[in-house]
Amino acid sequence: MNVPLVDLKAEYQLVEPAVRAAVDRVLGQQQFILGPTVEACEQAVARWIQALSASSSPLHGIGVASGTDALILALRALDIGPGDAVITTPYSFFATASSIVLVGATPLFADIDPGTLALDPEQVEGALRRSREGRNPLRVRALLPVHLFGHCADMDALLRIARREGIEIIEDAAQAIGAACPQGAAGAMGRIGCLSFFPTKNLGGYGDGGMVLTGDADLAASLRRLRNHGMVDRYHHHEVGLNSRLDALQAAVLLVKLDYLAEWTAARRRHAARYAGLFTSRKLLDWITPPVERPGFTMVYHHYVVRAKRRDELAGFLRKQGVGCEVYYPVPLHLQPCFERFGWTKGAFPAAERASEETLALPVFPLMTEAQQTYVVDQIARFYQTG
Description:
Helix content is 42%, strand content 14%. The protein contains eleven helices and 14 strands. A seven-stranded mixed sheet has the order 1-9-8-5-4-2-3, sandwiched between helices. Strand 4, helix 6 and strand 5 form a beta-alpha-beta unit. The longest helix has 34 residues. The radius of gyration is 21 Å and the shape is globular.
């Protein structure tokens, strides 16, 4: 049996008629940059997330060219740059930290919670203390937590820290559209939230795309200027911005797929529950540690990431048996060669480093069948029970 890590072809077969009709409408309009289709997508995604957060305050969506640009524009809109520092996690996709560097600011890493794999508030407190030490204290302007693999970070504690310190929170919700916790929905709790519509995301387009979310109307206006060369009126530029606009074709695809997102999220959650039951019934918990979902949190399982003993051997075996799997992330951000100048060394963030050595993503795509899932667990059991 072949079980891919993600099955976009099966998904496309389901949505193809509606997607083709939506794309044809855009082709008929011949308006490909911004315009009514992008505006409709921005409003629909913002309303969808606002409804999850149970907030009466309007949420503004600003479509941009990628999730990476969403982070860069969020930092730019808050005037974060040279001389500033941003506290974030060392265990995430590269863009989380590179966006900070690209605006000229300094990334300050704080270790992760070993259970949720998200930014640990106690470690954030330590990073704040370190930022004030030495001859050249750093000016921390923001926290950038990541709702990794679809599980919200501990926003209760992080929001309290941000309020106490008078700093902003920018949420990296690229992997967490639809996730929620007692404080609200992913992307709608901080000053700004950032989404990615990369094709493999829970809500993915057919190319790059992203969105910035904010409840601040003035900030939303600033973000709309910044994504469009800082332009207010045509050819009148009040600031230097980026060329980072969501394409109308991508917006049309996203509008179609948004109608399926709640159903697909429920399917991912069912798959996660089935995995947990199968690991227990097959007596695999001595080798496999399932992901942690804290009480009161709704995880959307962008990836189903376990901790596995003999992780690399298991991954190689599964691939030979036709099971897609992936290591997210094999090198923590503080150990990436391009960040050597910041002085981090191995051992600085042990929880992140251990996660990079143990975690493995298993298939959890919405249209996965029960037979496919059983096969995945059968192969894991075969590896451990015969190896």
